[in-house]
Design goal:
Largest sheet: 2 strands, antiparallel
CATH architecture of the largest domain: Orthogonal Bundle
Helix content: 40-55%
Structural class: mainly alpha
CATH class of the largest domain: Mainly Alpha
Number of domains: 2
Distance between the termini: 45 Å
CATH superfamily of the largest domain: Winged helix-like DNA-binding domain superfamily/Winged helix DNA-binding domain
CATH topology of the largest domain: Arc Repressor Mutant, subunit A
Number of strands: 2
Radius of gyration: 19 Å
Number of helices: 8
Shape: globular
Strand order of the largest sheet: 1-2
Strand content: 5-15%
């Protein structure tokens, strides 16, 4: 019914470590996860409520991932990093994000291990942000989001507007 884990995290050659199948999806009822169409994640239950402060240690792998990239600014920063942006001013200009918010999001992505901070100018001190192997492994997540968004949220052409022949 579902493919292998490597199909979800980038396929052969992915920098992600090999993961047991049950971490992401299973076919056994006692370890079902939300990746299955009907079963709910047994790793998330009422005895372990979803609270933001506890997402990093939550037993649910989706919750732990969201702790690292769970806001839209972080995902857009990663998108721009995949498009070759590395410098603070490039992210700020492209995203139209306030400098204080960008600083916090970049710091969080560095702390989570998705980006690394590299000094490129000592005077004045300037850094660039590069994707790490962990960050590179986020690529299939962005691709999946792109496909899902294009499939369900791309505006339909207006039939009243005719294109030129």
């Amino acid at each position: 019914m579902w493919g292998t884990v490597t199909e979800f995290i980038g396929g052969a050659g992915s920098a992600a470590p090999a993961m047991p199948k049950h971490v992401i999806l299973t076919e056994t009822p006692d370890m079902a996860c939300i990746m299955q169409p009907i079963a709910l994640c047994s790793l998330h239950n009422e005895s372990y409520p979803m609270q933001h402060a506890r997402l990093a240690t939550n037993p649910c792998p989706i919750a732990r991932g969201l702790d690292r990239v769970g806001d839209w600014w972080s995902i857009l920063i990663l998108r721009d990093a995949f498009h070759g942006k590395t410098r603070f001013d490039q992210f700020q200009t492209n995203l139209g994000i306030a400098p204080n918010i960008l600083s916090r999001r970049l710091r969080k992505l560095v702390e989570a291990g998705l980006l690394t901070k590299v000094r490129y100018s000592p005077h004045p001190p300037r850094d660039e942000y590069r994707l790490t192997p962990v960050g590179e492994d986020f690529r299939p997540v962005l691709r999946a989001l792109l496909v899902w968004s294009n499939t369900h949220f791309t505006p339909k052409p207006d039939p009243a507007i005719r294109s030129h022949p």
